[in-house]
Amino acid sequence: MNLQELNFPTVNRFSVSKPANVQFFNKLLEEAEERGFANSETYYRKLFKHIFFAGGTLYFKEGIPEHFKQTAYSYMIELMHSPFPKYSEKEAVCALILSELAQPDKVNFQV
Predict the structure, then answer these.
(1) Relative to the CA of 43, which of 26, 98, 107, 111 has its CA 20 to 30 Å away?
(2) Can you give the pTM of this predicted structure?
(3) Where are the domains of the chain?
(4) How far apart are CA 72 and CA 7, in angstroms?
(5) Which residues on neighbouring strands pair with residue 60, listed in sequence order?
(6) Is the dihedral of CA 99, 54, 41, 85 positive or negative?
């Protein structure tokens, strides 16, 4: 699946649980599971924690379309503030998104 081809919905922390948004989330979760982000402590899961809990900076990969950056990043932020779904599932989906957005060699943190 190419995440850049997806039409990320505009959501807020409460609309994430609407049926159409749940369906979109489940599609991303399935991809995250296939890529190994769901059940293991990958680099991008650690990067996610560094950015969201330690105040780290996200450096975007070069050449990523601006629309994808904005919509995927906004989706990720609102997803993390949402009470739905389980934290581990949200973390896996965010790691998946970060694997497409983040420039990993610019981040300095303990892995």
Answers:
(1) 26
(2) 0.89
(3) 11-106
(4) 9
(5) 102
(6) negative
Residues, the chain: 111
Identity at 54, one-letter amino acid code: A
Contacts of 92 (CB under 8 A, 6+ apart): 29, 32, 33, 37, 38, 45
Q: What percent of the chain has pLDDT over 90?
A: 56
**pLDDT tens by residue, 24-63:** 999 999 999 999 999 888 889 988 888 888 888 889 999 9
pLDDT of residue 108: 63
Residue 5 corresponds to which tokens in the numbers above? Answer: 């081809």
DSSP symbol at 60: B
Query: CA-based angle 25:49:74, to the nearest 5?
Result: 45
Query: How far is residue 59's CA from residue 61's CA, in Å, rounded to a whole number?
Result: 7
Question: How does 83-94 read in b/e, with b if 16+ C-beta sit within 10 Å?
Answer: eebeeebbbbbb
Give the mean pLDDT of 90-105.
92
Question: Which among 47, 60, 35 has a CA at the least distance from the CA of 91?
Answer: 47
